[in-house]
Amino acid sequence: MASILERSLLVVTGKGGVGKTTLAAALGVVAARRGLRTVVVEVGEHSRLADLFGASNGHPGGEVALRAGLWGASIDPDRVLLEWVQELGGRIPGRVLTSSGTFQYFAAAAPGAKELFTMVKLWELTQQRRWKRRAEGYDLVILDAPATGHALGMLRSPQTFGAIARVGPVATQAERVGDLLADPARSAYVAVALASEMAVTETIELQEDLREQLGRELSRVIVNALLPRRFTSAELGRIAALDGETPSRSGGANGGEVDRRVRHAAARAAIAVHERGRLQHNQLARLRRRDFDVVGVPFMWNAGLDVGAIETIAEHLDRRL
């Protein structure tokens, strides 16, 4: 895992609702602790990480400091387009061109254009010479990518758009982004999954799609929210026996019935949690049988996601990386 933090770009994706943003943030915390100037990038105008870390969100698309060595950013493709065109042709010509109805129609209708603008911004964040004066580059850019299907479309965008714009500055930029995505020394791909049959199946399909469409492999699979296997077979037998014990007479008839119900509920809960953990670890084994490099993250019992939970996950990852 240490090697993936040494790349320029780390793409974090997976099935929706598996905790991609949480894990992207935790990876960012680990990288920052190791002295890497790191930015975690979300797609869209609003940065959830800025809210989570209690940082000022600034203007949409801006980069905001989350903690020492760690920044957050959100990408608005329309804003990126303006920045890019200004970089190519100057500030005033750029504004004139992007305000043109014809150009806006082309940008909206061209296959892969919006996705390419997003990928161009990611490329720009990895550069030491940035579009804006005095803006610093980053050692590591972590993309909190959309869910798997949309993420693959975004990653294919340099190829898709490059087939339309075969020459000129747009084609050159698409090629640069494509080179970054294709280079194992500069980029890596991480899947986040839950230990459920559907999420694991989607992760396996993601690996196949990455290989077929980009010629790349998943560098790691992070399995989120794992429950521990708490009991041995002998302990499960004792729990089942407790469930069937005759209630004590000392509490009276009523007290005995309450005691029996409490024991029954506790035994059923213990067995249910153990069984869920067993099924999760079966899915973990399914990934490992396919030679994925798997890192498990334990279930967090917090009432809600906060910076403390991200720090705890980061500490766990830091020991495993």
Summarize the structure in words.
The structure is a single chain. The protein is of the alpha/beta class. The chain has a single domain (2-228, 291-320), classed as 3-Layer(aba) Sandwich (Rossmann fold), CATH 3.40.50.300. The protein is 54% helix and 16% strand. It has helices spanning 20-33, 48-52, 77-89, 91-98, 101-109, 113-125, 148-162, 169-182, 197-214, 233-243, 252-289, 307-320; strands at 9-14, 38-43, 63-67, 70-75, 140-147, 187-194, 220-226, 294-298. Strands 3-4-2-5-1-6-7-8 form an 8-stranded mixed beta sheet, sandwiched between helices. Helix 3 (77-89) crosses helix 4 (91-98) and helix 10 (233-243) packs antiparallel against helix 11.
Using brief descriptors, characterize the structure shown.
321 residues; alpha/beta; Rossmann fold; eight-stranded mixed beta sheet; elongated
How many domains in all? Answer: 1
Order of helices and strands: EHEHEEHHHHEHHEHEHHEH
Distance between the termini: 5 Å
The CATH class, by name, is Alpha Beta
Topology:
Elements: E1 9-14, H1 20-33, E2 38-43, H2 48-52, E3 63-67, E4 70-75, H3 77-89, H4 91-98, H5 101-109, H6 113-125, E5 140-147, H7 148-162, H8 169-182, E6 187-194, H9 197-214, E7 220-226, H10 233-243, H11 252-289, E8 294-298, H12 307-320
Parallel strand pairs: 1-5, 1-6, 2-4, 2-5, 6-7, 7-8
Antiparallel strand pairs: 3-4
Helix pairs in contact: 1-12, 3-4, 3-6, 6-7, 6-8, 7-8, 7-9, 10-11
